[in-house]
Design brief:
Elements: H1 2-24, H2 26-35, H3 41-61, H4 76-100, H5 107-117, H6 120-131, H7 140-166, H8 170-215
Length: 216
């Protein structure tokens, strides 16, 4: 049992380290991530957890020069959902569309590759968070530039990852990236209609119950 546990742990550490290879060699890295099974869901979940953790820590430990937080208005659960919800929409939307057009990636692979592509965010934002407390307003442009680099880098890695796991050409991959973003808007619209109908239905039955109790 100890040997099996050690093997699993070693594989987890290797798959986590492989994220560094993916962000520096995205084409080869994301191909091997899924086709050669170099990635694991445990590592993907770890990267996602670190991304969310850094986002939360930035609210507390980033200098007030760059981030102003009104804690009385902040709902931490909604803040976490604002990260997980778009990620879920992206994964489901991309998988759903590419499945219809000869995409090779499975739902789990889309999720794993997307999480691995987020690696630059915690790697850059954590030291940047600390750095923000030692800079002045005059150096704010440098902070903003480096912060933007982490986001752009992660976005480009997501696009590269989708192309590799679905085995799409560059043009087709860009087309389905745009289509996935559009599908996310469609899903949001459908969810808004769905929850609106649920809300109206609940309100109707509540008013019906109140009317019934009033007549009693």
């Amino acid at each position: 049992m100890a040997a099996i546990a050690k093997d699993k742990y070693d594989r987890y550490i290797d798959s986590l380290k492989f994220a560094l290879y993916c962000i520096s060699h995205p084409l080869d890295g994301f191909w091997d991530l899924t086709h050669e099974k170099r990635g694991t869901y445990a590592a993907a979940n770890t990267i996602l957890f670190l991304t969310i953790l850094i986002r939360i820590l930035k609210l507390r430990y980033t200098s007030f020069i760059f981030v102003q937080v009104y804690w009385e208005d902040l709902n931490i659960f909604l803040y976490i959902a604002s990260i997980l919800f778009p990620l879920s929409l992206w994964v489901v939307g991309n998988w759903g569309l590419t499945t219809l057009f000869d995409g090779k990636g499975r739902l789990g692979q889309v999720y794993m590759a997307t999480c691995y592509a987020l690696t630059p965010y915690p790697l850059i934002q954590f030291p940047l968070m600390i750095f923000s407390n030692f800079v002045t307003v005059d150096e704010a442009e440098f902070y903003a530039m480096v912060s933007a680099i982490s986001l752009v880098w992660a976005a480009l890695l997501v696009i590269a990852a989708m192309g590799q796991i679905h085995e799409y050409s560059a043009g087709k991959n860009l087309l389905f990236t745009v289509a996935t973003l559009f599908s996310m808007l469609v899903m949001i619209f459908i969810l808004m209609i769905f929850f609106s109908m649920i809300s109206q239905g609940v309100s109707y039955f509540i008013s019906l119950g109140k009317e019934f109790l009033f007549r009693l």
